[in-house]
Amino acid sequence: MNIVDSKCDLDNIDFLMGSVMLIDKEKDWTSFDAVNKLRWAIRNSYDIKKVKVGHAGTLDPMATGLLIICSGKMTKSINEFQGQRKRYSGTIYLGATTASYDAETEIVDRYSIDDITSEKVLSAAEQFVGKIDQVPPIYSALKTDGVRSYVRARKGESIKMNARPVEIYSLNITKIDLPNVEFEMECSKGTYVRSLAYDLGRALNNGGHLIKLRRDAIGDFKVDDAMTVTALAEKIRSKQRVSSK
């Protein structure tokens, strides 16, 4: 397996035959943006007319952290990577809800947090560990009636999202500084951390939404070994310039 990480030498990488690129996605980048930028860099720097490039699990624009991008024949392994456990860290804001369950949309409702204590937060978090049924946000890429739900949500349409089984292997509250609650978690494929933030608020008879999220690992791959899209694209272009001299 050709792993493209912060320590690799591109001399031994064949993007057409297949590579696994470990990307530390920056805030405000979409996963699609990252794929497009790297596809363009590979095609132009190596004079490849067509190369398959895809990602193994979307990260929302607000989120940062590990994004696995595959090229060439390694795109066949995308489902395998998507199925691996994910590790996240982030911050939930209690006392307010949004339609998207994160800070990407405006606050819809506000609640007093005067009766919330650290003990109540810790107790509420415990109920989400294990196999649970989770309702995805309406602002998601899942399709309802054949259309991406976020497209329908932006039009103001009424959408019913069905609950799906997911598993949260661990959920550790690392800091409580109300209204902010910092956490670390490990979960299965298909888990929406935004929904967890919303559901934690509901469990406290309050409101909650996600204001910060970072994906720290996917299976054995860690964000500490990744590089930004910009850094990898420049590394690819630099290698091509050296080779052409």
* CATH third-tier fold name of the largest domain: Pseudouridine synthase
Order of helices and strands: EEHEEHEEEHEEEHEEHEEH
Q: Which consecutive residue ranges, at least 5 long each, have pLDDT under 50?
A: 241-245
Q: Write down the Rg.
A: 20 Å
Proportion of residues in extended strands? 25-35%
The CATH first-level class of the largest domain comes to Alpha Beta
Q: Which class best fits the helix and strand makeup? A: alpha+beta
Q: How many distinct beta strands? A: 14
Second rung of CATH, namely the architecture of the largest domain: 2-Layer Sandwich
What's the CATH superfamily of the largest domain, by name? Pseudouridine synthase
| Multimerization status | single chain
The helix count comes to 6
Helix content: 10-25%
Mean pLDDT: 92
- The total number of structural domains is 2
Through-space gap between termini: 29 Å
Shape: elongated
Main sheet: strands, sense, barrel:
10 strands, mixed
Provide an overview of this structure.
The chain has 245 residues and is α+β, with helices and mostly antiparallel strands. The chain folds into two domains: 105 residues, Alpha-Beta Plaits; 133 residues, 2-Layer Sandwich (Pseudouridine synthase), CATH 3.30.2350. The chain is 25% helix and 33% strand. It contains six helices and 14 strands. A hairpin with an 8-residue loop joins strand 6 and strand 7. The C terminus is likely disordered.
Key structural traits:
245 residues, Alpha-Beta Plaits, Pseudouridine synthase, 2 domains, two-stranded antiparallel sheet, 6 helices, 33% strand, elongated, disordered C terminus
